[in-house]
Amino acid sequence: MNVIETNSLGRRYRRTWALRDCTLTIPGGHIVALVGPNGAGKTTLLTMAVGLTRPTQGTVTVLGGEPAGSPDALDRIAFVAQDAPLYRNLPVADMLHVARNLNRRWDQRYAQARLDRLGIPPPQKVGELSGGQKAQLALTIALSRRPSLLVLDEPLAALDPVARDDFLTSVVDAAQGEGISVVLSSHVLAELERVATYLVVLTRGEIRVAGMVRELIGSHGAGLEEIALRYLRAGVPSSRTEAAE
Ligand code: ATP
């Protein structure tokens, strides 16, 4: 099943289109890298996909249905917003308690085991955790909901190289071990190269390229980072891979 399908999807804020005419099909079972410069429309696309932003035009289908179509549909999507919003003044254990009460499919044993493995102490206040630990806590909360689709908006921005590597390893483990499809937006191309199996490049509100990394590498004779850079630099409107050829 396709995890995300959009058809002429667009969102306008006053006179400016944050995203326009976006037609995209992302098959399941991938780790999708959504790449684009600041203001490209990545967050707009992701928040429409998880049902937090309403489209101005077009449609978006997630896991075969409307993203916010029913509580069941919402249960299957986990979204970690930019800067991983968490309650800073709560101890980690209480943060888990809040998340548990808000989510019907919560797996407390999984959450505790994961934090234990990461060495994140339950009594510690969230605000006192390192950036990497906060990101891992947000990821743990998202994964403990047992989603089919995990959407991460710029999860790497505040992390040092080791924390980035640890975080991405966790994402790959979740994708491979638990069969979760993942979509993550990021500017950190070098690190995405290691994990992404599907690439979407977005600039100025329009899709420049979308496709399986394996196939793009075959057709472009370059790695993910170089392919992404080519399309980011090209800035030529097109929704097809041939755009930068
Ligand atoms: P970044 O990498 O900086 O997070 P982005 O690719 O996620 O950027 P968006 O946040 O989707 O980009 O923004 C796309 C465009 O839409 C920008 O021009 C932004 O100013 C505009 N925009 C986004 N949200 C709103 C809003 N709530 N009201 C008005 N304009 C908005």
Quick rundown:
It contains nine helices and nine strands. The chain is α/β, with parallel strands linked by helices.
Number of helices: 9
**Coarse morphology:** globular
**Ligand inventory:** adenosine-5'-triphosphate
Strand proportion: 25-35%
CATH architecture identity: 3-Layer(aba) Sandwich
SSE layout and pairings?
Blueprint: E1 2-13, E2 16-27, E3 31-35, H1 42-49, E4 57-62, H2 71-75, E5 77-80, H3 92-102, H4 108-118, H5 131-144, E6 149-153, H6 161-178, E7 181-185, H7 189-195, E8 198-203, E9 206-212, H8 213-220, H9 224-234
Helix pairs in contact: 4-5, 5-6
Adenosine-5'-triphosphate binds next to strand 2 and helix 1.
Describe this structure as you would to a colleague.
The structure is a single chain. This protein has 245 residues and is α/β, with parallel strands linked by helices. The chain has a single domain, classed as Rossmann fold. The chain contains 9 helices and 9 strands. Strands 5-6-7-3-8-9 form a 6-stranded mixed beta sheet, sandwiched between helices. Residues 236-245 have low confidence and may be disordered.
